Amino acid sequence: MKKIAVIPARGGSKRIPHKNIINFMGKPLMAWTIEAAQKSNIFDRIIVSTDDVKFAEVAREYNCEVPFLRDINADDITPVSEATIHAVQQAEKYYNEEYDIVVQLMANAPIRNQFDIINHYNNFVQNDFDFQLSCFPFGWMNPWWSFKMNEEKQHEWIHPDAMKKRSQDLDKLYCPTGAIWIAKKELLLQAKTFYGPGYKFHEIDWKSAVDIDDYEDLDFAKAVFYLQSHQGENV
């Protein structure tokens, strides 16, 4: 089976300009994902899908292929799955080869590593899933006790019945993350989304699931990275 990893890295981020190449712990943000994919030793092909010439240059500095620039789906409205699908189709034409499995690795999840990728890939193959998405369990915050609040500070509970229960009696809840999405290529092309028929979730450690969209996320990711890199030390 031929496997391709696609790392989407759009250049037009608004909340953090040039987000995918900002410095994160000594390297451009996208470099962490590129190296994780390379170290996994899973893929026949790893490409970065970007519309930005500078991003392409950075990717190549880390020995990742950018055979073409993204010519469509480069806005902030189009679902990232569509950009990945188009990149796979472009790659098949460019390299004159066909892929069986597509793995999408978001460039803004720098703490997800090669072991996470290997774990998710093995689970996907062993269970013969068609679509698999990463997720993580909610931690110290309890989504069962969430509420909306309007400008007048009036609140509305999202799960009012849950307020009658102790936290330990509530079901464990999970959140999707874009860290690692996997699909069989032909089915992905048909569904046009990784949320295709019968999609499954596979759990990832919450630290590996951290992604960066704004500066608060960036500060949080740096703190998590620091703590994880100093595990076992008195920090």
TrEMBL record:
<dbReference type="InterPro" id="IPR050793">
    <property type="entry name" value="CMP-NeuNAc_synthase"/>
</dbReference>
<keyword id="KW-0548">Nucleotidyltransferase</keyword>
<protein>
    <submittedName>
        <fullName>N-acylneuraminate cytidylyltransferase</fullName>
    </submittedName>
</protein>
<dbReference type="InterPro" id="IPR003329">
    <property type="entry name" value="Cytidylyl_trans"/>
</dbReference>
<dbReference type="InterPro" id="IPR029044">
    <property type="entry name" value="Nucleotide-diphossugar_trans"/>
</dbReference>
<keyword id="KW-0808">Transferase</keyword>
<dbReference type="GO" id="GO:0008781">
    <property type="term" value="F:N-acylneuraminate cytidylyltransferase activity"/>
</dbReference>
<dbReference type="Pfam" id="PF02348">
    <property type="entry name" value="CTP_transf_3"/>
</dbReference>
